[in-house]
Design goal:
alpha/beta; TIM Barrel; 42% helix; disordered N terminus; binds ligand GBH
């Protein structure tokens, strides 16, 4: 008899216990630990984003975006790849829905290309772009899969002069969000305003590693970040005003996840504190409806211009917070003025094939706990978690991505720990359904659980897809 059967026998026979109370408890604990079953109704899904999978860059009136320009600038993207064709999901979306169906997921996190709907970011609606998303959403629903829709995953219409340097972009975003909610909320219940603030603000305008690839002085960044969170806030208000009673709104954010070096009270406290201060420009500002003092001190004379009403919007109550979870920052308590410090990574710290993707399964647990311990959270979703791997096709057409399975299993076990401690994590979206355009890494880094042959566009399930299918079918990580 396995521990699992033992657990079942001990607890379920005709409602009467076959075992003394102490032993029943032991059996339950063993059952719990070895099976790691997720709560009933837990949402299993996969995630993608428009520019990374759609292709169809010049079709049906889609307007130009910052990523079109950036990826067509020689030297910016690995191999000078671009998203013109990507996975061609623009045409193959029905096949992709079948991939999802075959996995057994209940939900799919996708993003809308703003410039398909408003080619220049504002003004006239492009009906053909709307029709495309109607087709995708209807196809998902027809197959019993619930769409979770992100409104902005970094592909910004270039028609919006000044991009995120301009406050007008935040306003245009609000109008776009109003249209989206009005048009799609009869079929889409869950909306995410924005994906990962830091990637389209800091990395786009300071580091210059993502579109638009600018390297502005740090002093300008505070205002750009403010426009990012303002867009979110105006988006929440617009979605609430134009959705219906069932509409739920949140975002997909990648807070810096601080992992205590040891799980002792002082280091756990340090991680909590670091979470609030280390994410001050973004999630902290949203949750508290203000910039905290520590942030304003850092900004000094460069503190963003905040207009009346901005923080009313930015601090809008959310129905859920989505977390994109990848990699840890280790933190410890110390006697510095802030009371904590971050540990440096040793050069041999293990990572997946993307150099930045350091492997720290406990990141999963702390991503949820730090957020909940700082702020009251009704509902959390993991809106992204996954990894790159050097996938190769075997001669018989298989992909044995055991390292991806290793990564996913260990992270999921740690999400499960958070749930078992009572944190309100309600769903998990694996990044990604299939290999796709990995931004500045082009097609060189594969994050999918389906392998994409970019010559033929054929999708092949990897071992990790087979594994994820079992997880979903059993609602458990085994
Ligand atoms: C997510 O970002 C994105 O939402 C998704 O589109 C993407 O495909 C996926 O992850 C996988 O990358 O080179 O050291 O400066 C993840 C968060 C933040 C990870 C920026 C890469 C660059 C680190 N990303 N980071 S570094």
């Amino acid at each position: 008899m396995t521990r699992r059967d033992f657990g079942k026998a001990a607890t379920t026979v005709a409602g009467t216990s076959l075992l003394p109370a102490g032993l029943v408890q032991f059996a339950r604990a063993a059952d719990h630990l070895s099976i790691r079953r997720f709560p009933k109704g837990f949402v299993w899904g996969c995630a993608t984003a428009s520019y990374q999978i759609e292709g169809g860059a010049n079709e049906d009136g889609r307007g130009e975006t910052n990523w079109d320009v950036y990826s067509h600038t020689p030297g910016k993207i690995h191999n000078n790849d671009n998203g013109d064709v990507a996975d061609d999901s623009y045409h193959l979306y029905k096949d992709d829905v079948q991939l999802l169906k075959n996995l057994g997921v209940g939900a799919y996190r996708m993003s809308l290309a703003w410039s398909r709907i408003f080619p220049t970011g504002k003004g006239q609606v492009n009906q053909k772009g709307v029709d495309y998303y109607d087709r995708v959403i209807d196809e998902l629903l027809k197959n019993g899969i619930e769409p979770y829709v992100t409104l902005f995953h970094w592909d910004l219409p270039t028609g919006l002069a000044g991009g995120w340097q301009s406050r007008d972009t935040s306003k245009a975003y609000g109008d776009y969000a109003a249209f989206v909610a009005k048009h799609f909320s009869d079929r889409v219940q869950n909306f995410m305003t924005i994906n990962e603030f830091i990637c389209f603000t800091d990395l786009g305008y300071l580091v210059g590693q993502k579109a638009p690839g600018m390297k502005l002085p740090p002093s300008e960044l505070f205002q750009i970040r403010h426009h990012g969170i303002l867009a979110h806030g105006l988006g929440v208000q617009a979605i609430r005003a134009n959705g219906n009673a069932k509409t739920k709104v949140g975002l997909a954010e990648n807070p810096n996840v601080f992992v205590p070096v040891m799980e002792t009270d002082e280091h756990v406290e340090a991680a909590k504190k670091a979470t609030r201060i280390g994410n001050a420009p973004f999630i902290t500002a949203l949750m508290e409806g203000k910039y905290i003092d520590e942030y304003l001190q850092t900004a000094g004379a460069h503190a963003p211009k905040v207009e009346a009403g901005d923080f009313k919007a930015i601090g809008s109550k959310l129905d859920f917070v989505g977390l994109n979870v990848y990699t840890p920052t280790y933190v410890r308590a110390d006697s510095s003025p802030l009371g904590f410090s971050v540990e440096h990574f040793q050069t041999n710290f293990p990572n997946m094939t993307s150099p930045w993707l350091r492997i720290g399964p406990e990141t999963a647990y702390w991503s949820v706990r730090n957020i909940c311990d700082n702020w009251k959270m009704p509902t959390l979703y993991v809106t992204e978690n996954g990894c790159s791997a050097d996938d190769v096709l075997t001669s018989d057409g298989r992909i044995e991505d055991t390292e991806r399975v290793m990564y996913l299993r260990n992270y999921l076990m740690n999400f499960h720990r958070a749930i078992s401690e009572g944190y309100p994590l309600k769903g998990y979206f694996l990044w990604s359904l299939m290999d796709n355009f990995e931004w500045e890494d082009g097609y060189n880094k594969r994050f999918g659980i389906h392998y994409v042959d970019y010559k033929t566009m054929k999708r092949t399930p990897k071992l990790s897809a087979e594994w994820y299918k079992q997880v979903i079918a059993h609602n458990a990580v085994e």
